[in-house]
């Protein structure tokens, strides 16, 4: 694909659109507009090529404009544009579910389709509560999330999430929710490469919650195996194993939110496989279709699924779903994405590239204002010391410097977060981190 050259929208043309997670007035005064993309790059209307250090929004794992995916969407649009999944379906939905189950952690062999990570989380929480209800244990309604966790923007996901600014304007949220502490303690685990050695004991806080609330009231614990939007926090060695044991001890379902870590981000189809801990439920989205069509999924193990199948055969087992669940174009994109990951060896290549990525990230340890660097797979975070009374501005300055130099990165407070397409090359890794270093050197 050649660099896209189209006219940027005028101020009048932009007026009707209320952008999400955006300072709309500031954006419309100085908009960032992309008009095309291919491989590792976005293109602006004036012909600039922008190296994508974020895989869109943690999702374009196979790179932009992946040919198999684009072709599959075009072909499916000409065959079957839409069919409801309420009491009917189409062949691709069954094929995609089968393909996902085949690469999922062992035992997670049923897939419920949704349209986003937010919907996947809310669906998983409802399944968890309904599961206990179906097995005659309706007291289990309490949910446990974690500080710094991000689980989408539905009311369920916001309730179990642990980023206060996301919740501030929308309360009250769900009751009967508790939170584990986060694992980010730079005084003990700064500059860790991969999993921090310190912090496994923090999982034991779940026992403290159980002691206060009574474990027989807790339906599920939900965590990101690697915290993403909260600052790229890999779990300490042994942390997830402890969570799994505590959940098993008390009959609590363990949910992994793999919306970011799913589909190759840390070196296998799912993060659970890399980290060696299998949950009862996994939520996924983003890389599921390479970001090309909105789609998400909830994977459940056979015990959870079979519990729902004990009722009358003629009645819906789960009174839940969405108009666009299992959408034909999304299923076509999902199958083509899996084909691309498999045929191009993307999952297998990630661990090889990750070693180059890790070294490049940690080479910034001596750069001005850097107080921590974290990485796992093709994820990284560079945390900066904040300016007094002006938190977030240092990272924002570096992000703008990078954009001006043709590199796209993202911030979470004073942390630069990075999650490139999994096809990134060593030369592109070098350019990404060299540009960040230049931005850091320019700071006061």
TrEMBL record:
Keyword DNA repair: no
Taxonomy of the source species: Bacteria, Pseudomonadati, Pseudomonadota, Alphaproteobacteria, Acetobacterales
GO molecular function annotations of the record: transaminase activity
One Pfam family linked to the record: Aminotran_3
Keyword Repressor applies: no
Cofactor(s) for this UniProt protein: pyridoxal 5'-phosphate
Source organism superkingdom: Bacteria
Family note: Belongs to the class-III pyridoxal-phosphate-dependent aminotransferase family.
PANTHER family: ADENOSYLMETHIONINE-8-AMINO-7-OXONONANOATE AMINOTRANSFERASE, BETA-ALANINE--PYRUVATE AMINOTRANSFERASE
Keywords: Aminotransferase, Pyridoxal phosphate, Transferase
InterPro entries linked to this entry: Aminotrans_3, Aminotrans_3_PPA_site, PyrdxlP-dep_Trfase, PyrdxlP-dep_Trfase_major, PyrdxlP-dep_Trfase_small
PROSITE patterns: AA_TRANSFER_CLASS_3 (PS00600)
SUPFAM superfamilies reported in the protein's UniProt record: PLP-dependent transferases
Name by which UniProt lists this protein: Aspartate aminotransferase family protein
